[in-house]
Design goal:
By secondary structure, the protein is α/β, with parallel strands linked by helices. It contains 15 helices and 17 strands. Strands 7, 8, 9, 10, 11, 12, 13, 14, 15, 16 and 17 form an eleven-stranded mixed beta sheet that branches. A six-stranded parallel beta sheet has the order 3-2-1-4-5-6, with helices on both faces. Strand 14 and strand 15 (395-402) form a beta hairpin. Helix 5 runs parallel beside helix 6, helix 8 packs across helix 9 and helix 14 (366-376) runs antiparallel to helix 15. It starts with a strand and ends with a strand.
Length: 436
């Protein structure tokens, strides 16, 4: 049977991994699919290096548009990244009637609505399993495996760089800056780590998952995003003393008032499975009405783990390419006409528990004043930890865990607490999530 002809745009870490895995496992893939899948054309600016990698049987060009223009190419894999030329190439491939596979979470989070609309018009498929959590098949699980369920919420550690940094801070007592430098030295963080440490990368990914889980347009522009740059080693230690670990989570929940979509550091119980996801690993928890809570764990980045997801999309597209477009799995799990533009809640409307750290004067009445403010605002206390004052100092640290409170109410309470004359430092607040 005639092979599926694939054009590959970008031969970096994931691109070369895709080429190698497909070549190495060609026989196994053909047994599953019933026909060969061959990368017959590659576009990369360093043509000499690319040709040396793929050998003489694959055509290498510098201009990606040549790949799209080739009538023999059935599927285009976009692994260039970014919003610019990648968007132009993906849209051109779709307009040319070619199926597309991409690992570009930023592109989909920002331009996914337009990309899927164009693909629907042309009757082509867009595979993007590799865009979220690397080799973990979370997209397929949300789109297909959980299709009998009403999904209630999902929460994930979906950025390996920040999880590595937080693990190093907890296990070694490092400051954020030192842990970041270690991550960069080991290749877990880029020279410019902004997208990772500011939570933007995680927001791209949770936006994609949220759209699939709840049948809404890509909501990235409405996400609340907070990174880990302000986290301090002492908060990680205090959380540990209280039985919690701090993780950067991407969270999306469906409520009676709309969709919560947020990325921020969170305290999670050290007894929970997701709290024990360490280093650069990823994990996603999904709570659904019929199946309950499920957990998906694995490598969230790297050449071959991500290549695994890219090739899985190739196989799916090859299997479904002759099927009627109406019978294929919808791009965002729900039929396009059934996508609902539900409101995304502002962070002020979100309800969650909170960790508060206060630097206070070591004198009588301080605790009563603080708890009095919380009671006045209707916020109840779950647990408390007070550090003994250091020798020779007249101030101490007071740590409070609260029960659920609305964000705007907590903000007002923090403002009132900050005005107390015995509160000597800015109040530190970290949200706490119950993922039971």
């Amino acid at each position: 049977m005639k092979p599926i002809q694939v054009g590959l745009l970008g031969l970096g870490t994931v691109g070369s991994g895709t080429y190698e895995v497909l070549k190495r496992n060609q026989a196994e893939i053909q047994r599953r699919l019933g026909r060969p899948v061959v990368i017959s054309m590659v576009a990369d600016l360093d043509t000499a290096k690319a040709q040396a990698l793929v050998g003489p049987d694959c055509q290498v060009v510098a201009d990606a548009k040549q790949v799209i223009a080739n009538p023999e190419i059935d599927i285009v894999i976009e692994l260039i990244g970014g919003y610019g030329i990648a968007l132009e190439l993906v849209m051109s491939a779709i307009e040319a009637g070619k199926h597309v596979v991409t690992a570009n979470k930023a592109l989909l989070a920002v331009h996914g609505n337009a990309i899927f609309a164009a693909a629907q018009r042309q009757g082509v498929m867009v595979g993007y399993e590799a865009a979220v959590a690397g080799g973990i098949p979370i997209i397929k699980s949300l789109r297909e495996g959980l299709s009998a369920n009403r999904i209630e919420w999902l929460a994930g550690i979906i950025n390996g760089t920040t999880n590595f940094i937080l693990t190093e801070m907890r296990e070694k007592g490092l400051s954020f800056d030192v842990a970041l430098k270690e991550a960069q030295a080991l290749g877990y963080a880029e020279a410019d780590p902004t997208f990772d440490i500011q939570g933007i990368d995680a927001a791209h990914k949770v936006s994609i998952m949220s759209a699939i889980a709840f049948g809404i347009p890509m909501p990235f522009a409405k996400a609340y995003i907070e990174g880990i740059t302000q986290l301090q080693a002492e908060d990680i230690e205090f959380a540990k003393q209280l039985g919690y670990r701090i993780k950067l989570l991407g969270i999306s929940k469906k409520t009676a008032h709309g969709i919560e979509l947020r990325v921020h550091p969170s305290l999670v119980s050290e007894k929970s499975l997701i709290a024990n996801v360490e280093g650069a690993m990823n994990a996603v928890m999904v709570k659904a009405d019929a199946v309950g809570t499920t957990l998906y764990y694995g490598k969230g980045a790297g050449g071959e783990p991500t290549a695994s997801a890219v090739i899985a999309d190739l196989v799916d597209i090859a299997r479904l390419s002759t099927a009627d477009a109406a019978c294929r799995v919808p791009y965002l799990a729900y039929q396009p006409a059934a996508i609902q533009d539900l409101p995304v809640l502002a962070i002020d409307d979100v309800e969650t528990c909170h960790y508060l750290r206060l630097g206070v004067a070591d004198q009588a009445g301080v605790l009563a004043n603080v708890t009095g403010v919380l009671a006045e605002c209707g916020i109840s206390i779950d647990a408390m930890l007070q550090q003994p004052a250091a020798h020779g100092l007249d101030q101490t640290e007071l740590i409070i865990l609260t029960h659920v409170a609305q964000e705007r109410v907590m903000n007002a309470a923090i403002q009132k607490i900050q005005q107390l004359p015995t509160v000597l430092k800015p109040v530190i607040r970290i949200r706490k999530e119950d993922l039971s």
